[in-house]
Amino acid sequence: MITVTLHHFVLVSFGLVAAGVACMVTKRNAIGILMGVELVLNAAALNFVAFNRFHPWDPAGQAPLDGFMFAMFIIVLAAAEAAIALAIILNLYNNLASVDVDKAREMRG
Amino acid sequence: MSPWNPGFTTMLAAAPVQQVTPILFLAFAAMTVASAWAIVASPNIVRMATYLLLTLTGVAGMYFMLGAELLAAVQLIVYAGGTLILIVFGVMLTASNPGSVLKPCKWEWAAGLTVAAAMALLLTMALVYTPMTWAYDGPVPVASSIEGYGQVAAVGRALLSDYLVAFEVAGVLLLVVMIGAAYMARKRAGGQSSPEGTGLKGSGSEQ
């Protein structure tokens, strides 16, 4: 039986970030790229929480909370980023009738 | 398999409840990473959204195992319940056929896999060569400022004391995002060049 340590959580986070970057590079669909960004953000949040849990602390004092707070703000920022990105993608679709990022070649709509 | 952190073993022997953790961890880790790579492999955008749901749920399970119950709940409510629904709405609004496929070409696959492999090499080396002997190996720390309220009380206090500025800025950011997204996503009254050429009619019936 293995014992679950910080390394295991960092490994999972590594798998997530690699998948997210591969997703961002290979997808042509703008929404697929957005999903890749979400994966990378999740990997970062998972790292924050894992390091928070395994960070040394004084049992007499307050348990650490900073990693949780960082992850919480990451979730808030991810929601905001998804809303803005979808508004942009809707505009793209209205102008080009497609969400293929290769077709977006002009700054002016 | 030799444990990286020997102190954890004695803790496992002392606390029988914790012995469930390795199996649960493996299950959730496999679910998270496998469905994350399924997103990369799948050409269908609706299936990608479904796999993203599995990944987000797996990460929420990880948060539970790390002793962050509140964060796991927030992840499920905000991410799996809110952001994912937003993405699915985006899929439905932008695809005339929701099952439509945009395939990357050969060299794009090659570029993506090369980037992923380079990152794998780099991160694996970083992981192998970084000693993490400093890691705390006791039981899960429970940040509770009031007895019986667990993490929620501690997080609430931190939000209104140490993280007050970040909390307020996040609130203002959400307001700006709400207004900005509504402004950007509306149909132009002038009917610039919507694909069906029904700019004015569409803007009237949209609300």
How much helix is in the residues of chain B?
A: 55-70%
Strand tally of chain A is 0
* Quaternary structure state of the chains depicted: heterodimer
Structural class of chain A: mainly alpha
Please tell me the overall pLDDT of chain B: 77
Low-confidence stretches of chain B: 1-20, 193-207
The sequence of SSEs of chain A as H and E is HHH
Largest sheet of chain A: none
Our estimate of the beta-strand percent of chain A is under 5%
Number of helices of chain B: 8
Approximate strand percentage of chain B:
under 5%
What does this structure look like?
The complex is a heterodimer of chains A (109) and B (207). By secondary structure, chain A is mostly helical. Chain A has helices at residues 6-26, 30-54, 66-96. In chain A, helix 1 (6-26) runs antiparallel to helix 2 (30-54) and helix 2 packs antiparallel against helix 3. With 207 residues, chain B is mainly α. Chain B contains eight helices and no strands. The longest helix of chain B is centred in the middle third of the chain and has 26 residues, at 69-94. The chains are: A mainly alpha (109), B mainly alpha (207). At the A-B interface, helix 1, helix 2 and helix 3 of A face helix 1, helix 2, helix 3, helix 4 and helix 5 of B.
